[in-house]
Structure formats: C-alpha cells, structure tokens
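User: Earlier you gave me the apo prediction for this protein. Now I'd like the version with zinc ion bound, so I can compare the two side by side. Same sequence as before, with the ligand SMILES added.
Assistant: Got it. Here's the input I'm using:
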Amino acid sequence: MIKREIAWIERLARQRVHGASERIEEMKRRSDERDDVAGIRILLRTMSLMTVQTERLIKDELWIANNRSDRRVESVALVRNAVVQLEQILGRGFEALVSPPERDFVALVQPYIRLARAVTDNPSTELIFESGEGFGYATWPNVFEEIEQGVVLLAPNLDRAVTALPPLGLVTYPARADHETLMHAVIAHEVAHLSVRRNVGLISDEFERGRPPGDLSDVGRLFEWTQELLCDMLAIRMIGPAFFFGLLEYLLPTHDPHDRWAAEIAQQDEDGEETHPPPAWRLRRLMREVAPFFHPRDNSYVAQGRGVYVSCQKLIPQPLPHTPGSKDAREQQFVESVLAELRKRLGDLAGGAAYPRGRFRRDVPLVWEKLDAAIAPAERVKHRRPRDANRPAESDVSRESDDLHENPPSTAWSEPMDWRSIMNGGYLRYLEHVLGNESAAEADAIRRETNSMVRGSIELSELHRRMIELSNQFDGLSVLQERQASPS
Ligand SMILES: [Zn+2]
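And here is the structure of the complex with zinc ion:
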C-alpha cells in the first residue's frame, strides 16, 4: 500500500463522514416541529458525537499509516471498520426519523412519553415515534443499543458518556391507522417493553428457576413469549381494558387464533419468527387481568361496560385443547407458572404508571355520559365556584403532582381527565354500539366519531394539564422570589 492510496482513502472516508454530518444537520432542522423532539435531539446529538469521533479516528489512524509502514494495513482496516460502523449506526437512526407521526397520532405522543417515564421510573426517559408502512406495532426499547456496541470501536473514551445516556425508545405504529386513536391503546404493550427490558434480570431469574423445557431454541422462544405475555399484563395495569380491546381488534381480523406468529415488522428477521404465542392463548389469559376493572358493578355504566367485555370474550376462540403431556401442553404450563410468579411483581413493574381501577370506575361513567351528550370529556369539574370566595381558586393548585406519576394535576375547580379514562370510556361506548345491532355503515360512522372525539378530548385534557403545570411553576417562582427578597 502506497501513500497515494492512503491519501485517496482518506479523502473518500472524510467525504462520507462529512455527508453524514450534513444529514444530521438536516434532520435537526426537519425535527424542530415534532412533538417528540426531545428524544430526537438526544439521538441526533449522540450521532453527531459519534461522527466527530470517527473523523478524529480517521485522522489519527491515517497519520499512523503514513508514518509507520508496519502499522499501515492495520490502521487502514481500522478506518474502514469505523466508517462502516458509523454508517450502520446512522442509517438505523435516520430510518427512525424519516417518518414522523402523522397528524392524528400526535395527541398520544406526550401521554405515552409520560407513561414511559413513569414505568421506567426515570424522568429523562424519552420516546420517539415512527409511522411505518407495514401494518404493525413494534418497539425498539433501546435506540442506543447499536451506539453502545459501536462506541467500543469508534470512541472507547466516550464509553461512559454513552452508558449514561437517558433511556430512549422508538415506537413504530401503522401510518395507515393514524386516525385509529382507540386501537393505539396497544402501544401500552410497547411501552411495557421498556420496563421488561429494565427488569430482564428479575424475569430471567424467575424463568430459570422454573426449569424451561425443550432444547436451546425452544427455551429462547419461551423466554420471548414470557416477556410478550408479561408486557400484555403490564399494559392492562397501565391503561386498563382499552388495551385488551385494542389487541382484540388488532389481532383477530388477520391472525389465526391458534397459530404462533411473528410481529409483522420482525418478520424479515429470522429470529423474529414465532415471537408471540397464539392469539387465542394471549387474549384468553388477559381476561383475568381485565375482569377486576368491572367489579363491583355498582354503577350502571360500569355494569354496561362489563356487558361489553363479556360480549368481547365470546369473540375469542377457545384455545385448542392440548393433549396432556404433549410438548405444547408442557410449554404452556411452564410459561403460565413463570407468569404466575411474575404476576406478584406486576405492581412493582408498573410503578407510577399504574392506572388505578378506582379511577377507571370513577371516570368511565362520566366519560361515557359526556360522549353520549356529544361533550368532550376533557375534564372533571370539581367545584363550580370557589369554596371560599375570598381565596382565588388558582392558589389552591395541588403541589403533589409528581412527574413520575400519571396522576393528573388539579385545581380547586377541576382537573384534566386522565387520558386513559378517555380511551376506556370511548372504547366501551363504541363497542357497546357496534356489538348491538348497528349496520356496518353506522358502526363505521360511530367509530370515526368516537376516534375524533377521544382524540380531541385527550388534546384538551393535555392542554389543561400543561396550563396547571405552568401555573405551578409560576407559583414556585414567586415563592422563590419572596424568599430571596426577605432577609433571612
Ligand atoms: Zn412485544
């Protein structure tokens, strides 16, 4: 290898890396208006850092190649590897950014980010969203995974900085279903993956303790299944029965209830095969998670909701009976026994993201009633006038609102409706209509109307929430100023 060749490699490698940084800048400009911009900024900043490091590595290694003939081959190989590695990392990153969520989905971006923060117990957790062309939901719970692997080669000195990056997840949803706000309840499962990933040690301990049956590939598949089924259970804890209805509507039209299946998006991936157990099993076993939401039946709407749920149950085929002692039977029994143990930890796993059943029972009737009256169920009015006329209600803002809890902040007057209550009330009311005797056209119209009403109400309640939070911040500021003003 002669020096001219090295110079040539240097020029081309620099061009490629320069192209990458230009693309990063362009992505920054494009992403400014996005609702998930915080996560994108972190990702792009990290990508920038990797690019700068690659530039430095090219410079250093090619200097060595030029000056030490014994190290020449090795250094040039390092440069090539570094460029390939960088391009792989950036390629996956850019792919995640080119299709932002579309118009109707945006209402759910902040609520799901909050849920992700609560379930990971980390206020710096971010989610970014991608509208995909395939009809499926998927998650990539750690966007930095490849960067974490690549950093060893590209920039060992950045190792610590990269491990300290905040959790960042990518959620892909079907672009064609942008307006299907109700069905997007299944994203709770994707958010649950963040918690499952974080607690994978605990899960695998429990799994090993149960002594998984089968050979290595069976064990790997059963571990995946355990995680998927656990995410389903967690999703119910986090957003309530809406997840069950969403999953039902998503799976049944296209999946044989008795077949193992791979998530559409993972299908090209060899390892992605049979990532999920048969839908009939998946849905049937969720019924015991959903049922408690509809007890006690002390309210007519909750009772009505229970009726909807019972009708939906009838839509799920019974799982095929396995011959006792058969492979399928043993596998199912094993997974169920692991999940029975993990179920005891569901409360911990859901953490501040749990959706209290009491809130469901309190809110759903109100949401349903308002929807019946064509009023957006965006808030709960608590008092229509201040209790104490001398005291302005605004000063009564609750200060308990904690970032990591999904409890809506409230004022003396009212509080924003929990977005999950809006989803659940909307779903139940819609299903009650379509499971009745409506024609297909009527059912479609109700679906459209419910989706937009639910979406609009979530937007309003989010706005309300943000205003209360801002007012909290202003209050905090003035308290601080008073303190500073008064000599201590
Ligand atoms: Zn999953």
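For your comparison, keep in mind: Residues 264-272, 392-403 have pLDDT under 50 and may be disordered.
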